[in-house]
Each structure stands twice: as structure tokens, then as C-alpha cells.
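User: I'm putting together a teaching handout on how multi-component assemblies are represented. Below are the sequence lines for each component of a complex, exactly as they appear in our records. Could you produce the 3D structure of the whole assembly as C-alpha cells, so the students can see both representations side by side? Please keep the chain order the same as the input.
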Amino acid sequence: MMVAPLVKEEGAPLAPSIYSLRSVDKIYARRSLVALENVNLDLRKGSFSSVIGSSGCGKSTLLKIMAGLTSPTAGSVVLAGKPVMGPRRDIGMMFQQATLFPWLTTIDNILLPIRIRDGKMAARAKVHDAQALLDLVGLKGFEKAYPSELSGGMAQRAAICRMLITEPAVLLLDEPFSALDELVRDFMNMELQRICMEREATAFLVTHSIAEAVILSDTVFVMGARPGRIIEAVHIDLPRPRTLDMVTSPAFGRYVIHIRNLLSQGSQS
Amino acid sequence: MSTFDAHGPGAPVESTVWKEEISLIDSIPRPLAILGLGLIIVLIWHFATATGVVSNIILPSPLETWREIVFVGTNLVTGGYMLAALWVTMQEVLIGFVLATLIGVGLGVLVGETRFGERAVMPYLIAIDTMPKIAFAPLFVAWLGFDISSKVALATFVSVFPILVGTAAGLNSADRSALNLFRTMGASRWQTLVHMKMPAGLPHVFTGLKIASLGVMAGAITGEFLGGGKGFGEMIRVAASQLHTPRVFALILYLSLLGLAMFGTVSLIQRKLVFWHKDGRDAGE
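Assistant: Of course. Below is the structure of the complete assembly, with chains in the same order as your input.
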């Protein structure tokens, strides 16, 4: 299995890798399915990466392994120097659905991870942190609102806060805005970039959208299916902060076409 | 000009305003419709009895029934022997309901949360649920005697299943991403149950509780029919055996008020507790 080398970056030295996967395989024996084969990837500290691939290429399996929700069949998964052997508090996660609980106020939803891990007192002590996060995502004043009073975009903002409250070392984003309509989605992606830049977060996004992957990422991992593998790590050399206008630039277009070609090759093989 | 004309200038614009039909029943206010239908039924009832089409022993006249309703009501309000009977039945119903809730939620958690419960216990519970539970009444009387406990047992037995099924269904109603979220938070099984599955399942539990609040009445009254005692059911049985039909009707009316109060109380608690669920309506509606 050939893995294309990363395109060399000019100028600034590369940040150290915080999350690394080496020779990761995942085989579902019962269905005799090789979901992942020899996956190697590195997330550099403070970088934004995404993984793109056709449905059923193993993206979700990869994310589950990285979240510590399922074990790889072979290989090593190491975050911040420690092997990932289960869910960890330094891993933050966001899903397609905001999954806010309707019986809790927005702030109690955000404090839920603390409540679960450290108890009621610890959650109470973090109220100010939660308020600061609400401020960060532009939801100030919605502390006492119930999720039914929030729009889809606002609910996902609250979900961002809940992900950030434990101060995770890495953010795993499973198509977080794909249920939102396109205008809101574009806006939320730019918000996500701002939040990640402000907090120097390391983020890993699963997406179906090539444009979304390119506009947000420093590195796009293109996956092929059956067996699920990384075809190429495409380095996106567009200046930060990215803006929605960049989609009209020739460089953006070249990246999109390159990734589309990789994907169609991957699905033909 | 704010209109866009696709057919060139000067094309005549035809008005396409048309009248939507509204059915007659929709134009009548709801309380009026209910009252009106009630009045029509009482009128038919009156003529059926006044003309002698139906014998007075089988169906008493509206007026006779009304007198009996006033009589029973007066007895209840003034603290007569009927109030004592009502209290007996109420005790059966309330104790039965509390027991059914405890057992139903307990078994529901066992069945809905554990693999053992789901695989081994559930089939037995389904088998018992398909049996006509009222048929167990003579057994309960034989086991527990003629006092209140045999009626409580039957009331509990009849009403436990909807609560059990509601609880089990509720615990399984949590969606995948909520479960995944709790796993990523490192939540224990107990925490997942208490903080997520239980509250998420409450609407289902309340659907079960509402059905149970009506079933518990049927259980208690059936128990009294077969096991005697000093409750309302016994009074109905005695009145019916004396062909005192107006009394039977009146007693049933007051019983239904008790049932309504039970149902209303459960609904009220639901609205307070499950305030976040779509207008407090039941799950699956």
C-alpha cells in the first residue's frame, strides 16, 4: 500500500504531530469486511485536517477509532504521547445532530460533560467558563434558554461549546453542519475556523463536501473504499484566515479538481 | 411596477380568488357541539323511555337517573355511607397505581436496559400480557381473601403492563448520537441511564401511566364485583342485583369522575415534568 508523501511546506517549520495513527487496520470479522487497511496519518498541533471519501469508505470507522469508541484490529493510535484505549476527556467530539438534551437549559447542556466526569460541584465551578464559551460562539444571553428555543445553527454553536468545555487536545467533527441549510453552513464553517484559530485547536473533520474540506483544511486526507485506505494527503496552501471568496480563486479550483480526480480513481479501483 | 409579466404588456389578469369550503361542524364552537350532541342523546333517551319502547327496568328515564345522581351526590357530600365506600375504592385504586408504577418501572428498566431482561424475561411478560388479566380475579380472591388486598392485587396486575411497556420503550428511544455522545464523555452505564435514557424515555413512561390510570379503576371494580367488600363496586353489584338501574347509572357516573381525576392528575404531573416534550403530548402521537 503506497501512501503519497506530504507535499513539503516552505518557510515555517512544521508543528509537531499531536495525534498519530500508524499502520491502523480495522477488520469486521463477522462481515469479513476490511474497513480500514494500513492507515497512517498525523495531525499537527494547531492544524485543521479533514478526511473525505465516498460513503462506506471507512471514514466513520476511522473517526470512531480516533475517538476511542472502537478498537483497531491492528496498529497504534497515539494522542499526546498516550495510546488511545477508550474515550478520553482530551478528545472533543461533535456530530451531525447537535444532540442537545431538551430537558436541560443551554448552559446545563454545555456543562454536561463536566457533570458526568467530575460531578455536580465541578460543573457549578465551571459556569463562568461555559459563559465565556457562549460568548465566543455568539450565544451570549441564551444561558437559560432551552434547546427548543434555539435554531439549528444556534444548537450547533451550543454543541461547539459543549465540545470545548473539557478543553480537549483534539476536536473530532463528524459532518457537524451537514444538516444545516447551505447559507448557515458556510457561515458556521467560517465561525468554526475563527474559533479554531482563536484557541489554536487541532481539528479533524469528516465531510462529504470537497469545497468544505478545501476551504477549512491545512491537510485533506482523501480516502478510497474497499478496503478503506488513505490515497493521498493533499496539503492546502491557501493563506489564513480563509474567506468564502477564496472559492473563486484558481488555486482553490485546482485543489478541488485534484481531490475530485483522486476520489473518482478511488471509487473505480 | 413590481409584477413580472411573462406574457408581454397588456395581457388581462384574471382574478383566481375562490371560496374554500368550510364544513358545518367546523363552524360550531366545540363546547356547543358537545352540549348539542348530549342534548340530542338525552332527548332520544327520554322519548324511548316515555313512550315505553324500552322497559323502565332496563333503561330508567333521564329524570329518574338525574334524581338518583342528586341522591348519591348528596350522600357523598354529606359524608354518608357512600363516601365511605368511595374511600375504600379510592384506596384500592391509589395503592394499586403506586404499586403498579413501582413494579412497572422496575421491570421496565430490567427489560429495557439489560440483555438478560430483554432476552429471557420479556417473552414471559409478553405471554402474561396476552392473557385476559381480569380472569385472574377469582385466583386473587382465593389467595388474598375478601378484604382490600385482593382488589389491590388485581388493580396492580391489570395496570402494571402499560407502565412496563412504556418504560422499556422509553429506554430504547434514545438515539444513536446521544448514546455516542455519552460514550465519548466516558459516562458509566448508570449515568447514561439516569442522565439520558430515563429523561428521554419519560414521555413514553407517561403514555403508559395514563393507560394504567384507567386500567387500575377497571381492576379495582372487577375485584369488588367478584370479591365483595365495602367499595363502590360492591354497591353497583347490589344495586344491579335489585334491578335498581338508576342507582347503577349514578354510581358509574361518580366512578368515572374518579377515573377522570386520576387521569387528569397524571396529565398534570406529565406537563410539569416533561415540559420540554412537544407541547407535553404523549410519545408516538
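A couple of points students might notice: The domain at 73-280 of chain B is CATH 1.10.3720.10 (MetI-like fold). Chain B has two domains: 29-56, 73-280.
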